[in-house]
Specification:
Blueprint (H helix, E strand, L loop, with lengths): L1 H38 L4 H25 L6
Helix pairs in contact: 1-2
Amino acid sequence: MARRDDEERAEEQAAREELARLREEHRDLDSAIEALERVGAGDRLQIQRLKKRKLGLKDRMSFLHDQLTPDIIA
């Protein structure tokens, strides 16, 4: 029983660390997209790829957040 609790805590900690890493990457992509759009240096295809990657990160962050948030039955 204690081993399962330790494993669950380790999985939760790993999910929290991944979520923090994804949030940072999401912010970095947001900054990169904004900079490319502001200076007009990036081509549209590159910007679209960055936006798609950012959307994928958001989906993964939502999944992890849901996993970490306990279900509350009303």
